[in-house]
Amino acid sequence: MNIRLELAKLLNLCFVFASAYMFWQGLSLFANTDSPIVVVLSGSMEPAFQRGDVLFLWNRNTQNKVGDIVVYENEGQDIPIVHRVLREHHSKSESQNKQFLLTKGDNNAVNDISLYKNKKIYLSKEKDIVGTVKGYLPQIGYVTIWVSESKYAKYTLLAFLGLSSLLGGE
Amino acid sequence: MFSLTQRFQVVSNQAITFSLVIIAFVVASSWIQLLYPSNVFQNTTSAIANVTPSMTLRTSRYYGSQNGKPKENVRVSFDLESDFSPLFNWNTKQIFVYLTANYNSSGSINEVTFWDDIITSKDKALVQLKNAKSKYTVWDLESGLSGKELDFKLHWNIQPWVGPLVYGETDISGDHKLTVEARKKNTESGDAEKVSKRKKKRTKKQKVN
User: Fold this and answer.
1) What pLDDT is attached to residue B20?
2) Which CATH architecture has domain A33-138?
């Protein structure tokens, strides 16, 4: 066994992970949001977005317009919700950047008030909005849903990665 | 020489490059179709008429009421005509059209949706509504809507099969400005009675549940 070669392989692996992480963080910085790419998890925006569709977010706008599709997170919950802005209210004075939004899923019968926490009836653009949807790729994200929801898929993926790293020596 | 991972890498790299080229082509060609022969961002028109408001008082949080104070809720009925068929091209999955109203209140600028619709095919792209009811009941965040001047606009949003979302506004003609009249004083007590009755009903319902 050549230790130098094994170490070089390890370094290569680290490089792959580091560059993936850098790509994600760079994108976050560019779009000014925690998650610049999200996968749709529910059917509440059908037929526009189905489960597994990939959305690209942008969060450098200080205000949203009615009709924008936004991603928000409720306090204390890590589930991103993708819904459309139904109403917006913002202050007349330029200095105050506050905006209140009411959202609704296209496929839902009623607005989101029942989803908001702490008896809120509006979202705050500043605090609650993760980003505004700008771009769309169909279905590709289904892999992540598949891996996170089916343990067989997870083990298959892990087995594949493990095998290929074991067998992959030059 | 050629390991399993290497083969996999080469194949996946080629697949990614190939699909990126296809996506770029689809997006570019659909944008050209939106701009030529006629620019849909400027030439989509709509006509609105007979906008009539109706107001109720609600005390539920789901209708904007806070601390049990009755809240003015406004619905409108309206006639609307517009043709969205030029927005359909081979990268159009659906068009979301929405009728909004802008208004100013004491401290803020507001835009609210009264009606919206999803159009999934070109044959359904002609919108012709007579005496349609608004889908949503609208309230103001701070106070009431009475006395506010609503300015109606019809917007559209193209949801593509792939690529960026496209937004635009129609050039609206007709009587699109409407001032919501204040509620008459003598009906106020009547409204309040209705409200309290509704409250009683609701508490009963909750007990049953």
Assistant:
1) 95
2) Ribbon (2.10)
